[in-house]
Specification:
Length: 195
């Protein structure tokens, strides 16, 4: 709890002093994540539920809700103006109306589920990641995509709701052909080389 408040205030202070994104966050277990960085303009709700890997970049003006649990694995890039929500009350509010705030017990229609974003995935600008989404490793979520449910490893996702429109390994194979000395680095996280 103390650590998440400290990080929150540190980002607010950096924003107030005009400084931009800096390196150095902390994992839930207290480990230093020296290569991760979160822009000070990103809003994180329920920061205690955030499990963050190293080498993560979270850009400007994002809304990240980790109240139901959010795991962001190593190397994930979250660009700008992205919303990641682990809960949604819109159906419950419509059903309960004015009684929503005073309702005791489970609220009908309330959605709450953790999210996981796999290693070295890229989340494009203005995307929405919905409660319960499980995004595989190496995924590219295109700008303005609305992701829900399970996304396979290496998928290219686009649309509202998002659907798979390709596989990043085709482009990765072309890049590795130009830079074969990087194959070991790629294989270290991907577990295989693209064909």
């Amino acid at each position: 709890m103390f650590r998440s408040r400290l990080n929150h205030w540190r980002r607010r202070l950096l924003w107030a002093t005009g400084l931009r994104t800096v390196f150095g966050e902390r994992a839930a277990d207290g480990r230093a994540l020296l290569h991760s960085r979160i822009a000070p303009s990103t809003c994180i709700e329920g920061e205690g539920g955030l499990m963050l890997g190293d080498h993560v970049f979270i850009g400007q003006f994002n809304f990240i809700d980790a109240t139901a649990g959010l795991q962001i694995d190593e190397g994930v890039q979250i660009t700008n103006f992205v919303s990641i929500v682990t809960h949604s009350s819109h159906r419950s509010i419509r059903l309960l109306g004015r009684q929503y705030v005073e309702h005791v017990g489970e609220r009908p229609g309330f959605i709450k589920a953790p999210i996981r974003i796999g290693a070295y995935s890229f989340i494009g600008p203005h995307s929405l990641i919905e409660a319960g989404a499980v995004i595989g490793k190496g995924v590219v979520v295109c700008a303005y995509a609305q992701v829900r449910g399970e996304v396979p490893d290496f998928a290219i996702m686009a649309g509202q709701p998002a659907r798979q429109v390709g596989d990043v390994r085709a482009a990765d194979a072309k890049l590795l052909a130009l830079h074969p000395m990087l194959a070991a680095h790629y294989q270290a996280w991907a577990g295989e080389l693209p064909v």
